[in-house]
Amino acid sequence: MTKQASQPEARVASPSPFPANSRHESRDVRAARLLKAYRSVREETERRAAPLSPEDQLIQSMPDASPTKWHRAHVTWFWEQFLLGEHSPGYMPYHPDYAYLFNSYYVSAGPRHARAQRGHLTRPGADEVTAYRKHVDAAVAAFFNTADEATLAKLEPLIEVGLNHEQQHQELLLTDILHAFAQNPIPPAYDLDWAFPASNRTGDAWVTLLEGIHTIGHTDESFHFDNEKPAHRALVGPVKLARNLVTNGEWLSFMKDGGYAKPALWLMDGFATVEREDWQAPGHWRNVDGQWKIMTLGGLQPVDPAAPVSHVSYYEADAFARWSGKHLPTEMEWEVAARAAHLNDAYGVVWQWTRSSYAPYPGYRAIEGALGEYNGKFMVNQYVLRGSSLATPDNHSRVTYRNFFYPHHRWQFTGLRLADYAV
Predict the structure, then answer these.
(1) 58 by DSSP, 3-state: which?
(2) Where is pLDDT greater, at 18 or 312?
(3) What integer pLDDT is reported at residue 307 of this predicted model?
(4) Distance of alpha carbon 342 from the chain centroid
(5) Residue 189, CA distances (Å) to 8, 67, 176, 228 in order
(6) How far, in Å, CA of 141 to CA of 139, rounded?
(7) In which band, very low, low, confident or very high, does the pLDDT at 300 lie, cut at 50, 70 and 90?
(8) CATH placement of domain 4-182
(9) Mean pLDDT across the stretch 299-317?
(10) Beta carbons within 10 angstroms of residue 251's beta carbon
(11) Interval 73-90 mean pLDDT
(12) pTM
């Protein structure tokens, strides 16, 4: 059963799951280090899937979500395709159809089953996916134990991408099954012991950033995705950022004031979405006999006014900011404040919307090959979120991390903090 949400260490920025290699590391030490990191991440995926029945693992509640067993199989295909298939001589795919079933969006890697139809795949079953994972895990272990030093050193960046890629799907595994459970009229619980992490609300309400030129983006060779570089200089401030996240209690005030019914607060596309989807509250909220409750990983629970609001879209975050007489921070403002440790709950509670469009940094170039499709081709019509959430695995957050979603998305643990003009 997952206890991810209650682990305090998940609420700070943390290094990659991949420990750095020593300058004079031997082949055997390197192989052991790679295998230990690989097994740790792979075991976490299985730990998160363990509370789910085979029926739970099949469901796909909307086109943007994926079944649990598909996540488990897709990350396994990633290792089979990009590590074993391209670098392990003589390796034969476990099943001739799995590349078609479990490729996601790597067009250059071959054809794919339609994303919106992943929930139609009754076979292979969850047990067959488990067998697939075990087969590939054994092959990867054998590869680490037999590959020469030069090969292991060359492939280390690819392996680290694979580990971080699997961690991303570990987060999606939880948010996707929560969305599926939220559609159930008899609300199930993923983990009855689950609790929303406590919020930290210390210090002054606002942090002022004076006008200045700051370095934005990843500056060293520790792990990062390609969209976090190149590091560049940006003018930031003067601006004030809220030290704390917006709470459910503040959101209830927005709702009581008719926030969802006032078109002047909303972007045009946002209000059209409100009317089309009949939004009256954040995602996963239910009005039960006049009391607002929220569907959580622990089942249906009363909305806690003190907890940070979650499952809100960019449209909602922007409307709330307007209602408050404020705005959302840019991703550059967020990074400068977070780097200086000025923000409470920057990590491990909710991802935080920024008003920055997801776009390449100056001088950005996608990496070569199929993995170049990982980030660059999505740099349009989406907004950047910063930080991490309670579903983000340990060792998968850093100040330069750039998450991104479409403005109507709200099935993730997404919230906000406000910004204001400094005078």
Answers:
(1) helix
(2) 312
(3) 96
(4) 22
(5) 22, 17, 13, 36
(6) 5
(7) very high
(8) 1.20.120
(9) 97
(10) 25
(11) 96
(12) 0.93
pLDDT over 70 percentage in the chain: 93
Measured CA to CA in angstroms, residue 79 lies from 12, 197, 358 at distances of 29, 33, 28
CATH fold of 206-421 reads paralog of FGE (formylglycine-generating enzyme) (3.90.1580)
Residue 400 near residue 375, CB atoms below 8 Å: no
- Per-residue confidence (pLDDT) for residue 368, from 0 to 100: 75
Cβ-contact 323, 265 below 8 angstroms = yes
Residue ranges of domains in the chain? 4-182, 206-421
**Contact between 245 and 350 (Cβ < 8 Å):** yes
At a CB cut-off of 8 Å and minimum separation 6, what does 375 contact?
Answer: 225, 226, 227, 366
Residue recorded with tokens 């008899």: 186
pLDDT at 9: 34
Cα(347)–Cα(392) distance, integer angstroms = 9
Torsions phi, psi for 387 (to 5 deg) = 100, -135
Which letter does DSSP use for residue 193 in this model? T
**Which residues, 6 or more positions from 341, have their beta carbon under 8 angstroms from its beta carbon?**
none
Confidence of residue 16 (pLDDT cuts 50, 70, 90): low
65 vs 175: CA distance, rounded Å: 8
Are 380 and 200 a contacting pair, CB within 8 Å? no
